[in-house]
Protein 1
Amino acid sequence: AKNRGKNQIAECTPGLRSKVEVTVGMMRQLLRAQERNELELFYQPQVCCGTGAVVGLEALIRWRHPEKGMIPPGLFIPVAEQTGLILPIGEWVLRTACERNKAWQDAGLPPVRIGVNLSVRQLQNPGIVDTVKAALRDSGLEPRYLELEITESVVMKGTDTIETINRLKELGVYISIDDFGTEYSSLNYLRSLDVDRIKIAMPFVQGVEESRKDRAITKGIIVLAKTMGLGVIAEGVETRTQLDYVTEHGCDEVQGYYYYKPLPSAEMEELLRQQGLS
Ligand code: C2E
Ligand code: CA
Ligand code: CA
C-alpha cells in the first residue's frame, strides 16, 4: 500500500506533484526556521487621526532566511496554515508580541495596544483560549493592551468558532475584524460577535481617489462602525488625500505607508521613545 501511495504521487500531474514537493520542502524549512530563531516580528504603527500620535501597533511576522533574505508572510503563512505549523508559529507570535509590548511598557515608553493576527486554523482550536491566557500571564501584559485580529471568514466556520471568540473576548482582550468587507460572510457576524473594532480593508481605502464606489464603501463602513459604537481604523493609507478622506468621515485611526511601514523592533522602540519625550 505504501508503494502504491508513492506511485500515485509519481503519476499525478507534474503541476500537482511539484506543488506537493514545494509545500513539503517549505514545511521542513519552516520547522527549522523556528528552531533556529529565523522568525522575527516587525511592528507597524497605528496613528490617531485626530492627534497624529502612535496609539497602537500591529505585529507582522517575517522570516529572515539565511540565504534568501527577508521573506514576507504571504509566501509562508499559507503553507504554515495548510500544514498545521501555524499553531506553534502563532503561539510564538502571541508570546513574543506580549513580551515585547510589556518590556516597552516596563521601560517607561508610552503604553500602546499590540495587534496580533489569528488564523482561522488557530481559532478552530479551542486550546487557543488557554494559549492566549498563558501568553498574557507569562508576560504580565494587561489584556486590554492585546488586540486579536480575526477575519470575517471565521464566522463561516460555525458556532464553535463564534463561541471561542466570545471566550477570548471575556479575557478582556480587544477583538477586531481584519480586512473588513473583503470576505463572504457579509454583516451577519456583527450581530453574533461582540467585537471592539473594524479594520477597513486596504482596497477600499486605496480606491478613494479614483472610485466613487470605494469612497461610498469606505465612508459607509466608518458610519456603520460609529453607529454601532465600534472603533474603526483604515488600513493601507498611503496618501494625504486618503488620510484626509477617512479623517473627515470620522475614522479613529490609520495604518499605512503614508505614516510608517512595518518597523523592526529596535526602530519601533526608538519611535515610541521619541513620542514619550514630546
Ligand atoms: P494584514 O493582517 O492585512 O497586514 C497588513 C499588511 O499590509 C502587511 O503586509 C503590511 O505590511 C501591509 N501594509 C500596511 N500598510 C500598507 C500600505 O500603506 N500599502 C501597502 N501596499 N501595504 C501596506 P505583510 O506584513 O506582508 O503581511 C501580509 C499578511 O500576512 C497580513 O495581512 C496577515 O494576513 C498575514 N500575517 C502577517 N503576520 C502574521 C502572523 O503573525 N500570523 C498570521 N496568521 N498571519 C500573519
Ligand atoms: Ca491584520
Ligand atoms: Ca488587514
Note: Residues 59 and 86 are 15 Å apart (CA to CA).
Protein 2
Amino acid sequence: GPAFITARGLEKHHGQTHALRGVDVTIRQGEIVAVMGPSGSGKSTLLHCLAGVITPDTGEVTIDETQISALTEDQRSRFRLTRLGFVFQFGQLLPELSAEDNVALPLMLAGTRRARALVQAHSWLARLGLEGMERRLPSELSGGQAQRVALARGLVNAPAVLFADEPTGSLDSLTAERVMETLTEVVRNTGTTLVIVTHDARVASYSDREIFIRDGRVTSPALEGAM
Ligand code: ADP
Ligand code: ADP
C-alpha cells in the first residue's frame, strides 16, 4: 500500500545531545513496525516526533496526509486525541480511576459524553478479555490485566496509528507474549498501523518489519520498506 507515515530528515537535540541525526522513515497503512536499538539510541525521541508529542528541530512528519510538523500545538493535540493511540509501559493507568474510566478517558478528552464513552470502553474491555473488571482500580488488576486496560485505552478512539513504547516492559515473558498476541490480533483485525518501540527481540518478532536505530540514525535498509 501507499506510505501512511512519512518522516523526512528528522533532527532533534535534547540540550547538547544530538538524539536524532537525519532520520527518514516510511510506514504503510496497517503495517506493524518495531523500532529497535540500544538504550539511548533515540528510539523514544523518534516515536515522540512521529506521534507529534515533540517537534523535531528540522524535518517533516506526515501521517495520513496531515503534515503534523506544520500544525499548531492545539491542532497537534487535537490530532493526537482523535487519530492516534498510545500505550506505554505498565504504570501509565491513572490510579484513582476505574478500568472503565481509564479507557473512556481519551474519548471524554475529545468531547464524548461519559455515558457514551463508557459504552465504547466496555466493548473494548470485553474484546480484550476483561469483562467483569470494568469497575476495578488499577491496583486491583494483575500486571497483564492492567496492560490490557492500557491497550483498550489506546484503541478506544479507533486510532489510525497506535504508538507503543515498550508495551510489555514490566511483564513476565508469558504474560508479555499473551499481551502481544492480543495486541497484534486486534490491530490486524482493525487495520490499525502499529509502531512499537522495544529492545526485546521477542516483542519485535510480532512485527512485519524492524527499523534499527543507532546513535540517532537508521542503520537498517528499512527506509523504504522492502516489503
Ligand atoms: P532510547 O529511547 O533509544 O533509549 P531516547 O530517545 O530516550 O533513546 O534518548 C536519546 C538520547 O537523548 C539519550 O542520550 C537521552 O539521554 C537523550 N534524551 C532523551 N530525552 C531527553 C531529554 N528530555 N532531555 C535531555 N536528554 C534527553
Ligand atoms: P525509554 O525507557 O523509553 O528509553 P527514557 O528513560 O530514555 O525512556 O526516557 C524517559 C523519559 O525521560 C522521556 O520522556 C525522555 O524524554 C526523558 N529523558 C531521557 N533521557 C533524559 C535525560 N538525559 N535528561 C532528561 N530527560 C531525559
Note: Helices lie at 43-50, 73-83, 99-109, 114-127, 143-155, 173-190, 201-204.
Protein 3
Amino acid sequence: TIVHVHGRQVLDSRGNPTVEVEVGLDSGAFASAAVPSGASTGEHEAVELRDGGEAWGGKAVARAVDHVNGEIADRITGLDARDQRAVDLAMIEIDGTATKARLGANAILGASLATAKAAAADAGVPLYRWIGGANAHVLPVPLMNVVNGGAHAQNSLDFQEFMLVPGGAETFSEALRIGVETYHALEALLKERGLSTSVGDEGGFAPDLGSAYDACAAILDAAERAGHRDKVAIALDPATSELFHDGAYVLERQGGTLDGNGMIDLWADLADRFPIVSIEDGLAENDWATWQTLTDRLGGRLQLVGDDLFVTNVEFLRRGIAEKVGNAILVKVNQIGSLSETLDTIELAQRNGYATIISHRSGETEDATIADLAVATNSGQIKTGAPARSDRTAKYNQLLRIEDQLGAQAAFPGWDAFPRARS
Ligand code: PGA
Ligand code: ZN
C-alpha cells in the first residue's frame, strides 16, 4: 500500500529542471524516479508542464511538483503499488485531459515509475523481472549515438544522430566494448583531422563533418581502426520533423532543400553505400503519405522507426499499422507519460511485427529505468546515447548489472534484432 508520495525539482543532464518523485509503501519499501526531457520533441507528445516566467529560463517544474504533492499524492495514497494499471489509470482520470496537460505528464510519469520501482523493491525482485515476469531475459543491442548534429549540437550536420550498432557481438558486454573502443578510435581520428571532439547532448562527438556521407564514413573508419569493422553497422535518426517547413525538407547547415521523394532517394543511396540497418524519422511526423512510399520502397530491407511519428501512443501506432507506415517504433516513457500506457504500446507493436526500441531522451538523469524496461519487454534494442557521460552510462551500467545477474540466462540477439536488414 502506498503511504508516501513526494515530488521535488531536480536537474537533468542539460542543467534544466525536471521532476523527481518518491514513493514509499507501508512495508517500508521505497523508491524514486526522475523524468527525462526531449529537445526535438514530437508535436503530439504528452505535455511536459513547465512554469514559464523568468527563473530557470522558464523551465521550472514547481507546478508539476505541486501536483505530485497535492492531487496525485491524495489520489494514489492507499492504493496497492502492485496494481500498476490502477495507479496509472487513477492519475490519468484525475488529470482529465488526453495529453496529461493539466497535471503534467512529467508529474504523472514520475509517480508511475516510482510506484513500479517501489513495488519491485517490496517484492524483492529486480525491476526488469517485476515488470517483465519470468521470461524477461533478452539484453538489448545498443544503438550508440556517436556523432551528434541537428537539435542536439551546434555543428554543421543537419541530421541529429549517427549511431554505431555493434550487432556482431555475442553478448551485451562485448557489444559495449566494441562501442567504447570504436568511440575512442573515432575521437582519435577526429583529432588527427583537426576536427572538434566536443560532444553533443547525448555524448556523441559533434564535429563539423560535411555531410551524412562523411559522418557514416568516419564511424566506419573508426570501427576499422578499432578492429571491429566486421561487427558493426550504422543506424540513423535524422529527426526530420525538425527540418520540415512548408512541405519541404530544408537542410540549412549543409545547404539545399529536398522534397519527400528526394529524402527517400537520399536514404536509399546511403543504405546502398553503407551498412545501415535502421532509419528513424526519415520523414516528418506530418508527412504520412510520403512515409507510406518510404515504407513501400525501403521497408523490406531496413528498419524504419517512427519516433515523432508515433510518439509512443497506441492511437498513432494503430494508424501506422493500418496504413503500412514504418515497421518499428521508438519507445519513450515520457512521450506518453505512464508505464502502463508504454507497455500497451509495446504490446501492440510486438503483436503486429513492429520492432520496439526502448529510448532515452536528449535530456536525461541518472535514472536508469529504461535499461530495465528494455529487458522486461525483451525488446532487443535500446537507444541510450554514446558510451560516455554519466547520464548515458547509467543505463549501460544498469544493463551490465542485469547481464551479470542473469548469468547464463542472459540472451543477446545480435543481428537477429534486425531481421529486415539481414534479408
Ligand atoms: P529528443 O531526441 O529526446 O531530443 O526528442 C531523441 C530522438 O529524437 O530520438
Ligand atoms: Zn528520434
Note: The mean pLDDT is 98.
Protein 4
Amino acid sequence: HLKEPTLCSGSRRHHGTLMAEEAKKLAAYAAVDTHIQNNQVVGVGSGSTIVYAVDRLGKTKICFLSIVLIQARQLILQHGLTLSDLERHPELDVAIDGADEVDAALTLIKGGGGCLTQEKIVAGCAKHFIVIADYRKDSKALGQQWKKGVPVEVIPMAYVPVSRAIARRFGGEAVLRMAVSKAGPVVTDNSNFILDWKFEHAQKWKEVNTAIKMIPGVVETGLFVGMAERVYFGMEDGSVKTR
Ligand code: 5RP
C-alpha cells in the first residue's frame, strides 16, 4: 500500500491549480522540515502521501524509521534510512502519516488504503503525531469530503454481527470491503476484514469510536480522535496550510 506516487510531469500547474500530487509533496516536505530532527526515531504510516515524507527524510535527515508496512522497507533502504520497529524503539519521537479526511477538530478518518490498526499503534507510540495531506482531505466535518465511510477492522468470523451492531446502534450501514477484483473481501495487514461504516449524520466521534471498539470482534476503527497534533495540507495555490 505504500504506493509509488504518480509524479506530475511537465508543468507544475494544471488549469491554475496545483495538482494533488504536488500538494501532497508540499505538505510532506513542510512537515518533515518542521518536525523532524537528525537521529530521531520516526514512525511512518502508509499511503501515497507518506512516500514524499520518506523521500524528504532520505534526502535531508539521518533517522530511524519504524514502519507500518513491510512494503515500505525497500523505499526506506533505497533512501539510506535505518529501519527499526517497536520492539527496538517502543517510543517514537514523531509519527507522520496521511489521512483520508481531517475535520476542524483534527479528528481523522484513516484506513482508506486498508491499514489502520498498525497505523494507530505507531501514532499512539509517538510523542508527536503529524498528519500530511492534500487539499482534498481538508474538511469542516467528517463525511463532507470522504464519502466511503469510516473503516472498521474486524475479525473475519465476526463481520456480520459487527456490521449489524454498528447499523443498529449508530445508523447507516457497515459494508464489507471487497477487493477491486470482487474475488473476495479485502484482507488487512493483520489478516482481518474491513467494514466501511457509511454513517448518516455527524456523530460524537470520541464516544462513537469507544463504543464501536467495545463491540466483540472489532479490532480497531479508522477514527483517530485526539491523536493528531498538527496537520499540514498542501493547497491548490501552492501554499501549505496548517491546523
Ligand atoms: C491507509 C491510510 C492512508 O494514510 C490514507 O488512506 C491516505 O492515503 P493517501 O496518502 O494515499 O491519500 O490510512 O489505510
Note: Residues 45-49, 97-100, 110-116, 119 surround ribulose-5-phosphate (CB under 6 Å).
